[in-house]
Amino acid sequence: MTTRRALLSAASAAIATSLLGWRTAGAWAAGTFAVTHSEAEWRKLLTAEQYAVLREAATERPYSSPLNDEHRRGTFNCAGCGRDLFPSTTKFDSGTGWPSFWLPLEKAVETERDTSAGMVRTAVHCARCGGHLGHVFDDGPPPTGLRYCMNGLAMGFRPAEA
Predict the structure, then answer these.
(1) pLDDT tens digits for range 49-78
(2) What is the value of pTM for the model shown?
(3) Cα–Cα distances in Å, from 60 out to 54, 118, 153?
(4) Helix (H) or strand (E) holding 24
């Protein structure tokens, strides 16, 4: 028979596992990157929403990013350091509510196992500053079959010169 204490204990364990998983997934933030700032400096450089996504691995609400509707030729870059991340030619409408791409630029991003939120995913971060960008999944279109599901708050867009 399940007791209230057993249920509370199981719930506490699940929460602790989630939190520890989040810390593990955020270990990239302690890594060595070409662009680094103190927490206070990052907070001055970024909006509160960008800080939450890039430095604390938060996720923006689906369909909230203007970058979902960005269809011009150009390059999507990191909002934390400006590094070019994805060419517009690899962007596609995944129907998920977040800007999605099937291939990043070479050496622009790095990935790491993410066990937060009670699931196993692959987190994506900027190779230059370590900013959390989103996650990559294996349900994307050809030719890679990958879906880099990115937070619009973590990126900017630079249109191609005419």
Answers:
(1) 999 999 999 999 999 999 999 999 999 999
(2) 0.81
(3) 11, 18, 7
(4) helix 4-25
Q: Beta strands 74-78 and 155-159: pairing type?
A: antiparallel
Query: CATH number for the domain including 38?
Result: 2.170.150.20
Q: 135 near 60, Cβ under 8 Å?
A: no
Annotated catalytic residue: which of 78, 126, 129, 149? 149
Strands 155-159 and 147-150: unpaired
Please give the residue range of the domain that contains residue 39. Answer: 4-159
Q: How many CB atoms lie within 10 A of CB 115?
A: 17
**Which sign does the torsion angle of CA 39, 40, 45, 51 carry?**
positive
Number of domains present in the structure of the chain? 1
Has 78 been annotated as catalytic?
no
Q: What is the spatial distance between Cα 154 and Cα 101, in angstroms, rounded to a whole number?
A: 14
pLDDT interval class at 156 (50, 70, 90): very high
